[in-house]
Amino acid sequence: MAEDTAKRTIGILTSGGDAPGMNACIRAVVRESIQNGFRVVGIQRGYTGLLNEEMEEMDKHSVSDIIQRGGTILGTARCPEMRTEEGQQKAADICRAHGIDTLVVIGGDGSYRGALALYHHGINAIGLPGTIDLDIACTDYTIGFDTAINTAMQAIDKVRDTSSSHERCSIIEVMGRNAGYIALWCGIANGAEDILLPEKYDYDEQKIVDNIINNRKHGKKHHIIINAEGIGHSTSMARRIEAATGIETRATILGYMQRGGSPTCRDRYLASIMGAYAADIAAEGKQNRVVAFKHGEVVDFDIEEALAMQKTLPEYDYKIARALSR
What we know:
Layout: E1 9-14, H1 22-35, E2 39-43, H2 46-51, E3 55-58, H3 85-97, E4 100-107, H4 109-120, E5 124-129, H5 145-165, E6 169-174, H6 181-189, E7 194-196, H7 205-217, E8 223-228, H8 234-245, E9 249-253, H9 265-283, E10 289-294, E11 297-302, H10 303-308, H11 315-324
Parallel strand pairs: 1-2, 1-4, 4-5, 5-10, 6-8, 6-9, 7-8
Antiparallel strand pairs: 2-3, 10-11
């Protein structure tokens, strides 16, 4: 490593919703950056903490015994101020005052927009995809998604057991904001009879009612509906379906349990590899990048290019989900 990088400083923060595996990513960024000869500053509570100058230097021991922990040791918060020109300029000035010339941001699209704004104000930024929603277009994998779907899958299995015992219909609402990836994956993995996705749902409840009645006529003792957060209203939907079918119907909203818990091996492994990659491209002097996992490899994209990409649900997977539920 050239001597001119010896005193350079990398800042790191987590922004937006927390996701299992963020700590593994933080650990990798910190240790690989130190190995590359950099000083590392950890910033508490995302961009809010940056604007409040809540930061401290980190060493290898700062990230000991965190790889197995859920959440983020740096904390996270929403920061409306970073959407303003004044907030962005203030954040850039604070980075300069603390000697931070590269900021590593672990989060989603909104976090990347903040990183891009800092870049336009003279602070290099590198983004890492940390979100359980799998809704970042440039990457096939986001940190936390694997843990979230496994947490949801196990919970749905348990609801299925009691639903079958009582011969009920169960509507189980999973997270994902306006993206249906968690619902789609769990719908297939849990063998759901109906999967409601924001990208596909036509709000025709009569189709669901007809499906429930038809399945009951053919001997089905339960009916599992996976409902995505972007559709929501699971409790009122359950009341309407029960009134229309005469079959006891219950709603279960899994909620924030999907964000928590010890990350899976996949989330720990890929978060570590991607975090180290971010530290390495920072050492190479790359500017304004997003780290991604694409076609089985870790790669990087320009942040503006990444934000311009569009992501859609895989049509074949959706077709198979429908075919297998019959």
